Amino acid sequence: MTSSDFSAVLPLVIVASSACLLLIVDLYVPHGRKGITGLLAAAGLAAAMAVTLVQSRQPQQAFGGMVLADGFAAFLQCVFLIAGIVGIALAYDYLRRMGIERGEYYALMMFVIVGMMLMAMAGDLIVVFLGLETLSIPLYVLAGFARPRPDSEESAMKYFILGAFASSFEVYGIALVFGAAHTTGFQGIVQAVQLGRVDHVLLLIGAALILVSLGFKVAAVPFHMWTPDVYQGAPSPVTAFMSVAVKAAGFAALLRVFLVAFPGLAAEWMPAAMALSALTMIWGNIAAIAQSNIKRLLAYSSIAHAGYILMALPAAAVGRVAPEAVSGALFYLLAYAVTNLGAWGVVVALESAEGKGLLLDDYAGLGARRPGLALAMAVFMFSLTGVPPTIGFIGKFYLFRAVLDAGLVWLAILGVVTSLISAYYYLRVVVVMYMKLGDPVVRSEGWLNLTVGLMALGTFVFGLLPGPLLALAGRAGFWVFGP
Amino acid sequence: MNVPTNYVVALSAVLFTIGVVGVLIRRNAILAFMSVELMLNAANLAFIAYARALQDMSGQVFVFFVIAVAAAEVAVGLALIVAIFKTKHSIDVDELSSLKG
Amino acid sequence: MTTDLAVFLFLAAIAILAAISMLFARNSVYSALFLVLNLATVAVLYLLLNAAFIAMVQVTVYTGAIMVLFLFVIMLLGSQQAGTGPDLPWQMPVAITLGLALMATLVYALLGRPSLALASQAVLQGFGSPQAVGELLFSRYLLPFEATSVLLLAAMVGAIALTRDEPEGKPR
Amino acid sequence: MLLREVVQGWGLFAYAPLIVGLPILGLLINMVLGRRLGERFTAIVASGAVGLSFVVACLQLAALLGHPEGARVPVADWITVGGLDVAWAIKVDTLSATMMLMVTGVSTLIHIYAYGYMHEDVRLNGDPGRFTRFFVYFNLFVAAMMILVSGDSFLTLFVGWEGVGLCSYLLIGFWFEKGKDGIGNALAAKKAFIVNRIGDLGFLLAMFLTFWTFKSLQFDRVFESAQALGAAAGGTITVITLFLLVGAAGKSAQIPLYVWLPDAMAGPTPVSALIHAATMVTAGIYMIVRTHVLFQLAPISSNIVVIIGAATAFFAATIAVAQFDIKKVLAYSTISQLGFMIAAVGMGAYVAGMFHLVAHAFFKALLFLGSGSVIQGIEHGHHAVAGHGEASGHFDPQDMRNMGGLRGRMRVTFWVYLIGALALAGIPPLAGFFSKDEILASSASTNIVVYVVLAAAALMTAFYMGRQVLMVFFGSPRSEAAAHAHENPPIMTVPLMVLAGLSILGGALNLPGVDTLGRWLEHVLESAHAVPFNPLVAALSTAIALLAIGLAWLLYGRKPLLENQPDPLARDLGPAFVGMQHKWWVDELYDFLVVRRYVWLAGFLANTIDWSFWHNWFHDRVIAQSFRAGTRWMAESFDLPVIDGASARLAEWTRSTAEGLRRLQTGRVRNYGIYILAGLVVMMGYFLLRSLS
Amino acid sequence: MNSWFSILNMVAFFPLVGILVILLLPRERISLIRWTALITSLITFGLSLVMLAQFDRSNPDLQMVVRAPWIQVGTWTIEYHIGIDGLSILLVLLTTLLTPISILSTWTAIEERVKEFMAFFLLLEVGMVGVFLAQDLFLFYVFWEFTLVPMYFLIGIWGGPRRMYAAIKFFLYTMAGSILMLLAIVWLALQMGTFSVPDLIARGGIPLNIQTWLFLAFAAAFAIKVPMWPLHSWLPDAHVEAPTAGSVILAGVLLKMGTYGFLRFNIPLFPEATVRFAPWIAGLAVIGILYGAAVSYAQRDVKKLVAYSSVSHLGFVMLGLFALNPQGIQGGLLQMINHGLSTGALFLAVGMIYERRHTREFDAFGGLWKVMPVYAALTLIITLSSMGLPGLNGFVGEFTILLGAFGSQAIGSPWFAGLAAIGVILAAVYLLYMFQRMFMGPLDKEENKRLKDLGWREVVTLAPLLILIFWIGLYPAPFFNLISPSVGKLVAAVQTAALAAH
Questions:
Q1: Do chains B and E touch (3 or more CB pairs under 8 A)?
Q2: Residue D169, φ and ψ in degrees, nearest 5
Q3: Are A204 and D680 in contact (CB under 8 A)?
Q4: Are A365 and A418 in contact (CB under 8 A)?
Q5: Which pTM value belongs to this model?
Q6: Closest CA to D511 of D422, D421, D430
Q7: Whole-angstrom Cα distance, residue A213 to residue A164?
Q8: Closest CA to D195 of D593, D600, D590, D602
Q9: What residues contact E447, with CB distance under 8 A and at least 6 apart?
Q10: Shortest distance, CA C102 to any CA of chain D (angstroms)
Q11: D386, E33, E376, E403: which could form a disulfide with D392 (CB 3.0–4.6 Å)?
Q12: Chains B–D, number of C-beta pairs less than 8 Å apart
């Protein structure tokens, strides 16, 4: 291990070591004051974020190609870290309110982030797998963190069984890829394909297995069925974090693996990716309409958005468009993160200790009761719909640009049509908030308000002036293809 | 042992599939876990076979990692089962269906 | 048919039978024991495939530790016979059909691969030895190795978080 | 430009814009101050404004005597778009000046009369506050009429054309809460406007064609290039003129668009006199004369004009014979006379047409005002009998069957009415004789069939006028009201006397051989040829008129009608009389063919097509509900009975399919696993097939 | 003039200042909030008059352009690019005029959540002005979609009983069209490398078959907004449920965004396709004219009647625009203003009676002229304007449109204009019917006998519209002068392209 290796994984090291530190510190923090642990965790994440931003370096390989530290990774790391910090902020009062305030929460969340960061910078399938597991295992626990609430436990169990099931596919896929390409390093695979030393069929089957597993993580149809149940049952801050960061991590791996390692197979996986994307957009959006529980609604919305981001994959299969498509996906992930975290923040604010306050009807009258919060929620809903001037619109715009550039007009049309459908259920939230009478029970907690406010501001301001973020995403997209 | 690698891998595929089916048809959560273990085990077999055929130790190292991951999964999974058993007094996965729709 | 092949087929048959038995055993304890048998058989195969170290790990970690844990939990929960109500409709036939389709696809594809013959190659000195594995672990696979440590730590913390009783956790 | 320069540049023509401006000024003053300063003030302002307009018109006459070629006085730009360049400009030539003089003159008299009439009318109808409003509308009408006659282009003419239509609408609907079922007047007003609009459509289309054919809408330019193009544009010009004819038919109440005019009698009587007899309805004739250049280039159209005019003259006369409403008789008479004029201008006898137009304005205004005087007299009588208030049920003060014997009670009215009736009947030497005779002479020299039809119409004209005079004024009163009727104040009778004088002397305008009007209009109607006086025709006409009056006397004079006695004509004519009485059921026919069809169509489009089919079924049900149904397919958690208003089958179908697919999001992990596996198998199978093929 | 304090920026964004102030005011100070909103909108109107004063009416090109890079996406530069020319100046003025009028109309009508109402209303103004000023497709799209949001709230919160349904329907339908336009915009930029409308027009050269698709995609957005037959199904719902001020803006300005879109984008960007589609669009427009008129006639709810009449009136506008000659386009452009004035005023009038009687059914009225003479007289004038009586504004527009369409080479047959002219009759039929049912006939409803005539505030609300109705009707020259150079340029460009295509 050289110093450059070390610097490449520095943010990761920071997060991991602060997680360990947290475990120790937590022992000395008395019950009822676990918030301190949360603050420390947030500090750790912030530090990692600072390092990531400062580093912002040339793409480099570390650990003999195991790790690709580049703009792509850095961009996504920022998304993870933001999601993590928000996850902590949302949990800060929530945990106490729900009576599940335990120091492990923060440590586990940081372990999840370590896993995600590994996935984002993976240069080798084995690292992808380990990252995935490091991400998943603590997340299973987090989903069940509200035990003994049955919903939470059920959610954890479902997530666990299906998660383990899906990751087994990945392991098997990696094995087959290893057999086919004689290596699991991305570059090795590419070289092998170029040199023709590779068993094509074997590689394809391996790729299919990996696609299933990653498709599961990003909640692509038909591997999405866990999503609504798990999102509903898990504690809301966890869901918030999960819906954003896990999806981002899944896409990080998906884009990396398929664009860096398997570009040679594009002819085969591109139609599959298109089909997945189309199915996901359709199913997610349509199923969301029938939901009356806000968490399930947002879960289906999250599925739908996975469909949009998935469009980037087939688009990127067209070599010329690839950097653009990847940037589009990255930006969309960020946009989705900002918006969705905010929306979940509002959900957290309305959820009461008994797990009530999650029905759409519980939002009636929010516009009159808490205009600020309702306005923020409206902004998030419009952003998720893709109405300008919000960041969600810019995200869709940027993504559709790549898709159209790749010539996938029908996919783009499907995308816009389904986003029209999505307007229906997003607007319903707004309708209920503003146009129905009711007296919702709403929390007003400092961190929560701040977070929601910041996210709303971000959604709006970056919708008007997305320039810097677009530039970042643009560079990150180009760097994924290495020097 | 002098057996074509394909045979070994095919065996792993069969075991893998049995694991897959096991997850899907057994309602006992513990059995589902065990089936997952079977799947992982099948993958390991494939790794080892390829490692042997390619003369590449990497495959064996992967197996090492997979076993470690499996251990971690089992630890968490069993903890989860115990926790759920405490509240529901059942480990039938089909009874975990209050979240749906 | 060479001896090796005969041995392989024998072991394969045991492994598959053990796996299937695990699947259909009524009692979870039996299932666990069948799985142990399966794992042990596979460990033998590892040994035959020049992976001595991994075979040892398999026996100690899997059969030794993990399966004991399983058995322990089964006994603890007294849940040998979970699931008595009617099964989900269609679940079984659909799962088995799809499973067979998967198996057919995989086996068809894998058997049709250009054979990677095992015999022709002489095994390198120290292939599969603990030392070789260790060297790889600490050089090329240092990062995954470290990651695994984090993973195990996380799992540990998670397991504790899931099972620890908390008398004071009172909802506000 | 300073006024002085203007005056220097244009001479007296510079004052022409005032002819429009004064009535507008008058109406503005009345709008602002009228209600505060009382009826007298209002009436003086309104009449004064129109009177001054008359003075201005006289000034134009004077100016034209010096410069008979006339002038175009631009006021402001209006529409300048692309090649279209229309200005607000006043065209003063002998033709428009004739109209100006006639309109402002008659208007002034009627304004004065209306002061007296409306003073009573608003009280009889119970809303004195509307007095001012009446004069505002009246002034507005004069302004619009002036725009009409002075416009220098089709478009400005059209402004006046629609403007007078509007005033007509407002004035017919003046007592908008009265009439049959309380809504009759409003409906009549609406009918008038809409039927006029149908004519206007023709006018509009004519304008479009004109513009794209001649690249202008200004009369002079259009006529110039039309003459230049001549036969080359013959077809187009024919079409243009036919469309113009539609416009004229609408405004001048010709077949088939005359139906609005009888209903228009719902307006107060001065309105009927001014708008629906003397001025507005002649706009169609004026327009045809104005565009005679085009009509001369389109012989087919001219012939159709003649046919329409003659047919209308005859047809309307038949109806007039059998009416009992004093104003309805006059209304159909007006239609009939307008038919005469239309026929005349169609034959190219423009001067004759204009002559009859002016003469008719005098005596028909007289007749209407006289009838108003009669009606008000009867109403007074009625009130005197029934006491005050409107309560007295079904009494109709306009029904001639309720009159009789008014000769003694309303002497002035009787005499002037008699003069008007004789003038209309065509008894020499009254105005009507000369003007109608000129038309008959023209027709005799062009087409004998037309002559016969017109002569027949003239016969009926004399007959129904005789019938009317006899029924109203002779015999003995057939109702208490008639018995108590009394003469109206001088403010009403003096204008009547003036008009009577004009009806007597009007013939002097264009005496045979002198042709004052002909020479005067020569400057506009270069090509107009005067038909020489035909003594035979004149004698025949006089004979016909006398015969008809004699006939009327035989039926109605010898043995005056008694109360509740049926019309003797009904016995003599049998079914034909019923037809005449019911106006040949044309209104019913139109109602059946057009109105009900449209109401049905609109209702069908709105309720069935647009709302039930398009809005409710297609958008709300097909789009929205198939959407919701599909949704339920995928995520069964929604209460199915919620499908509100869905047809039972659709609901059933949705329910059963949703039931069948209930397992999709079951909450069972193992089901979810199946999907993952299925996805994998499909994808892997696809990959394998792709890589193998 | 590349200053951030350019007059155009001021016009577009000044209402934001008002919003800020309103947001800072406590919500109980209703009257203060109303005054703030009114004054803000009046100042905005004043600023737009300054803009008018600076406008060079002889110049057909964009003026007062503000152009600065905004967002860099890949190789594209999305610009903040606004400017004004003859095509848009009247619409901007209309917007800034109708906004204070609408705000004034809410004085007593809106009592709840005034703060939000005013904020949304001013926000809407920003969006609308932005739509008319934007010269960059992306910027345009942003404003275009943005207007949906406040309007959606205006309908949804302050609307009638079915407001939620109407609001969502409004949003979804409009969005349905515009997302296709978004794709077309992206596609266009991908091919041409720029979003700048003037640059795109100057560059030209899009092959005809591609123009066809792009034309249709843009048209989808605009036609729904207009709305052209048969895409009008959202309109009656939105209008009937919207509060009066919302209806005024919806009819007065938002619908014009559709026709403006055709004029600003479809026609110059895709001239060949425009020429090709002109007869089809004209056909739809004529159907819309007649259909809208017939359907209006069958309505028994005044507001719904007026709503359907918009379908008919905007059919005229579309017919004029696609006549592709100066008469038609200038007439169409002027008719947009006319419709904004007269239909806006009609909605105001309907709102006034609704406020008194809380119903809009014909059956509830009759004979109102007797108790409310001022109201009746003003409504009559507006009605007459709406049905195109010469001397009032509607006629000038309709006449020029029909004249243009009659001789249009692009439409190719006088039949379209001929049939459309029947709409003039039908307009009289339904409008006079409305007037008759409301104001004429006996005053036989007890509730109506005590109705108060208009107060000074209501008269002031209507007065500016009435003045303009007469002004445009009698002396439209200043208005035509503003628009004719730009229209001339547009027509020349289209005709060149059409010639080149043949």
A1: no
A2: -60, -50
A3: no
A4: no
A5: 0.88
A6: D430
A7: 10
A8: D590
A9: E357, E364
A10: 6
A11: D386
A12: 31
Max CA-CA distance within chain D? 119
Q: Is D667 on the interface with A (CB under 8 A)?
A: yes
Average pLDDT, chain D: 82
- Report pLDDT for A301: 92
Contact C151 A133 (CB under 8 A): yes
Q: Give dist(CA A184, CA A170) in Å, integer.
A: 12
Determine contact, residues C169/A99, Cβ cutoff 8 Å.
yes
Tokens for D655? 């329910």
Closest-CA residue of D relative to C108 is: D688
How far is A103 from A307, CA to CA, in rounded Å? Answer: 35
Question: Cβ C154–A144 below 8 Å, yes or no?
Answer: no
Residue A243 DSSP label: I
Q: Quick one: average pLDDT of C89-97?
A: 84
- Between the CA of residue A453 and those of A460, D382, D611, what are the distances in Å? 11, 82, 44
Among residues 106-135 of chain C, which lie with CB inside 8 Å of chain A? 106, 109-110, 112-114, 116
Q: Where would I find the H helices in D215-278?
A: 219-229, 234-251, 260-263, 269-273
Please name the member of B8, B28, B58 whose beta carbon is closest to the beta carbon of C136.
Answer: B58
Q: In chain B, what residues touch A229 (CB-CB under 8 Å)?
A: 99-100
Alpha carbon A208 to its chain's center: 22
Q: Helix or strand or coil: residue D84?
A: strand
- At C27, give phi and psi (nearest 5°): -95, 130
B46·A164 Cβ contact <8 A:
no
Q: Could you report the average pLDDT of every consecutive run of 10 residues in chain E (502 residues)?
A: 75 92 89 93 94 89 88 83 91 94 89 88 93 93 90 88 84 85 88 88 84 92 88 86 91 92 91 90 92 87 90 93 91 93 93 88 86 91 92 91 89 89 90 90 85 89 93 90 90 81 60
HEC-encoded secondary structure of E399-450: HHHHHHHHCCCCCCCHHHHHHHHHHHHHHHHHHHHHHHHHHCCCCCCHHHHC
What tokens appear for E454 in the block?
Answer: 């208009």
Q: Report d(CA A118, CA A49) in Å as an integer.
A: 15
Tell me if E265 sits within 8 A of E134, measured CB to CB. no
d(CA E290, CA E230): 12
Q: To the nearest whole angstrom, how far is the Cα of A346 from the nearest Cα of chain D?
A: 24
Tokens of D217: 């809408």
Residue type, A283: W
Q: Which of A432, A451, C87 is nearest to E156 (CA)?
A: A432
Amino acid found at D645: G
Lowest mean pLDDT among A56-70, A110-124, B20-34: A56-70
Interface of D with C (CB under 8 A): 663, 666, 668, 670-671, 673-674, 677-678, 680-681, 684-685, 688
pLDDT in tens, D121-171: 888 888 888 888 889 999 999 999 999 998 889 999 999 999 999 999 999
In tens, the pLDDT along D667-681 reads 788 888 888 999 999
Least confident among D4-13, D174-183, E218-227 = D4-13
Give the integer Cα–Cα distance in Å for A186 and A191.
9
